[in-house]
Amino acid sequence: MRTMRRYHNLSLSIFLLLLSVNPLTEHVEYSDVIVFMLTHYAIFASGLLLLRTVKANALLILPSALIAALWHLPLPFYLSSHFPLYRYAMEASLFCAGALAGASIQAMSNMWRAVALGLWIISDTALSVIFLSYPSIYDMGRDPYPLWQFPVLGIFMILLMNIIVALLLYTYMQTFNPYHR
């Protein structure tokens, strides 16, 4: 069963990475902020899934969160949306941040996992609210994305976050199901 989980995680990790880092997606990312943000989620998730079954220090979640937060500040966000070198640095570091998060999960107690999930929900919601209410913060003058895309992105992020949380809760609740293998 454990080997099957590792194979599933590896397969999904590779799929998400190939879906996010390819010429077609890279081309679309320069004009569609929703695709750009989806690749953030997918690349981070790819790294997380890759090392999800490895048990490392729980404190690795801290640099993971800092790296993820850094790329969502207005200036790094702008640079990675404009310039290929920054885009590649963003993609590589988000993958590594996901891997750090994945490696730290096994070492966390359920309480700390819930705290980490809660902090992600709070930070993602805050970013969504900024995109909905103040999209001009992310306008650096020559932005490739029209401002109207940011509120749509904010709504999309809230929906995606709720789907992810629902799936995580469902998976967690299955551990209490006596009929679940």
- Count of DSSP H/I helices: 8
What structural class should be given to the helix and strand makeup?
mainly alpha
Overall mean pLDDT stands at: 90
Described by the principal axes of the CA atoms, the overall outline is globular
Strand content: under 5%
Secondary structure: number of strands: 0
Strand count, sense and closure of the main sheet?
A: none
Q: Which radius of gyration do the C-alpha atoms yield?
A: 17 Å
Order of helices and strands: HHHHHHHH
Distance between the termini: 10 Å
Fraction of helical residues: over 70%
Regions with pLDDT < 50 over 5+ consecutive residues? none
Oligomer state equals single chain
What does this structure look like?
The protein is about 75% helix and about 0% strand. The mean pLDDT is about 90. The longest helix has 26 residues, at about 150-175. It has helices at about 1-20, 25-30, 35-50, 60-70, 75-80, 85-105, 110-135, 150-175. With about 180 residues, it is mainly alpha-helical. It is globular.
Could you provide a short overview of the structure?
This protein is an all-alpha fold. Helix content is 75%, strand content 0%.
